[in-house]
Amino acid sequence: MMKILVVDDLGQWRSYHKSALSVILENIEYELVIQNSATEAYKNIIENTNNTYNLIITDLQMEECYEPDYAGEWLVKNVQKLKQYVSTPIIIVSAAPNIKYIAQQLNVNYISKPTLIHNPLAYELKIKELLNI
């Protein structure tokens, strides 16, 4: 079974991901875990190191305690240090103006929230590409 983690502090975006993934993965058995902060997400990842995620989708701008980094940036950097997650695909979904730069620095995928709003197919294509479905 596929396991996906979504991290976003805004309820409407958590709902968006849940709804979109249910359509995109309608014929695939998967478990979706949703967290509303980088701190909670990282704690969950550490507590479940034997049952890793197949995909992580995270916002950048959440709790402010990780400045000068965004919370999502902190999360990605720390997940990438875990040997179980070396090849796990990560997508940053954010409205941050420097999302492309941050994603390139972290060597992860990204979709800006404005793109998602205007072109939801981009989300579906990226998910399918990264999960090889």
Written overview of the protein:
α2 packs parallel to α3. 44% of the residues lie in helices and 19% in strands. It is globular, with a radius of gyration of 14 Å. The mean pLDDT is 95. The protein has a 5-stranded parallel beta sheet with strand order 2-1-3-4-5, with helices on both faces. β1, α1 and β2 form a beta-alpha-beta unit. It is built from 6 helices and 5 strands. The protein is an alpha/beta fold and 133 residues long.
Q: Uncertain spans, ≥5 residues at pLDDT below 50?
A: none
* Number of DSSP E strands: 5
Kindly name the structural category: alpha/beta
| Backbone CA Rg | 14 Å
Nutshell version of this structure?
The protein is α/β, with parallel strands linked by helices and 133 residues long.
Furnish the topology, listing elements before pairings.
Layout: E1 2-7, H1 11-24, E2 30-35, H2 38-47, E3 55-58, H3 71-79, E4 90-94, H4 99-106, E5 109-112, H5 113-118, H6 120-131
Parallel strand pairs: 1-2, 1-3, 3-4, 4-5
Helix pairs in contact: 2-3
